[in-house]
Amino acid sequence: MGNNRTFTMIKPDAFAKGNTGAIIQKITNSGFKIVALKLTKLSPERAAEFYAIHKDKSFYNNLIEFMISGPIIAAVLEKKNAVDDFRALIGATNPEDAAEGTIRNLYATNVTNNAIHGSDSDENAAIEIAFHFKEEEIVTY
Ligand code: RTP
Ligand code: MG
């Protein structure tokens, strides 16, 4: 059917505020099919590995502190044009710039504590999915 995959995390701020259910509902209402889902907590080592690309950025230490501060929800989503459509659904990195009705507009706290992650390319989606899920944890239905 030409579907492809993206990877998402509901970040610790949104989980702690009790927004997980509303965010998942918005994701499924927008045509994304959940094919894997888990509650987990990143260790400092795994957070550093996941965000290694940002290790020289000014916000890196804050980002790691934030991402290990509490549970996250990790999921694999399928849809036609999944990566780009999901980036549109979550909105700009800074919630002040995020379009009306996007997940970050509705649920983000600030530019670092911004509620949700979405992969930025098909290549990175595949890497991030493999980082969080074994192939047998991804359901075909
Ligand atoms: P993500 O990877 O989480 O989907 O977000 P993104 O592509 O929109 O943003 P990216 O540039 O990849 O940054 C990764 C995460 O780092 C935090 N951040 N803080 N100026 C700041 O304080 C700042 N900039 C980025 C955010 O949590 C961002 O999502
Ligand atoms: Mg990114």
From TrEMBL:
Keywords: ATP-binding, Cytoplasm, Kinase, Magnesium, Metal-binding, Nucleotide metabolism, Nucleotide-binding, Phosphoprotein, Transferase. ATP binds at residues 11, 59, 87, 93, 104, 114. GO terms for biological process: CTP biosynthetic process; GTP biosynthetic process; UTP biosynthetic process. The keyword Coiled coil does not apply. Belongs to the NDK family. It catalyses: a ribonucleoside 5'-diphosphate + ATP = a ribonucleoside 5'-triphosphate + ADP; a 2'-deoxyribonucleoside 5'-diphosphate + ATP = a 2'-deoxyribonucleoside 5'-triphosphate + ADP. Its cofactor is Mg(2+). It comes from the Bacteria. It is found in: Cytoplasm. Its EC number is 2.7.4.6. Its main location: cytoplasm. InterPro entries: NDK-like_dom (IPR034907), NDK-like_dom_sf (IPR036850), Nucleoside_diP_kinase (IPR001564). This is Nucleoside diphosphate kinase.
